[in-house]
Design brief:
Keywords: FAD, Flavoprotein. GO terms for molecular function: oxidoreductase activity. Residues 8-71 form the FAD/NAD(P)-binding domain. Its cofactor is FAD. This is Pyridine nucleotide-disulfide oxidoreductase domain-containing protein 1 isoform X1. By secondary structure, the chain is of the alpha/beta class. The chain has helices at 12-15, 64-82, and strands at 2-4, 28-30, 43-45, 48-50. The strands form two sheets. Strands 1-3 form a two-stranded parallel ribbon. The protein starts with a strand and ends in a 34-residue tail after the last helix.
């Protein structure tokens, strides 16, 4: 598993000697099971670029909440693959919501920037 904690994907340490597909935003492309283009390598969080067809109300924002959800889902996908089982896309990728803002309770569900 490859992980990072930055807003800008820091993929440079992983590129040498590997053939990862890289997204336009500089992240390692992952499919809907968090697989990268390199066999048996998963990526989650800020280092990856979601390359699946997203829900109309979800967008990748590279926030800690999404990184945590992606990490949990990547672990679930790795465990399922090890056991020879399949897993469905997690609900976390159906609706974007983020709830922290200087200790105030703020909820931003869906693609809030398109409301109007």
């Amino acid at each position: 598993m490859v992980g990072a904690t930055e807003v800008t994907p820091n993929i440079e340490p992983f590129l040498c000697g590997n053939n990862f597909d890289v997204g336009e935003d500089g992240g390692l492309k992952v499919d809907d099971h968090m697989h990268t283009s390199v066999s048996d390598i998963y990526a989650a969080g800020d280092i990856c670029t979601a390359s699946w067809q997203p829900s109309p109300v979800w967008q990748q924002m590279r926030l800690w909440t999404q990184a945590r959800q992606m990490g949990w889902y990547a672990a679930k996908c790795m465990a399922a693959a090890t056991l020879g089982q399949s897993t469905d896309m997690d609900f976390s990728f159906e609706l974007f919501a983020h709830v922290t803002f200087f200790n105030y309770k703020v909820v931003l569900p869906g693609k809030y920037h398109t409301w109007g």
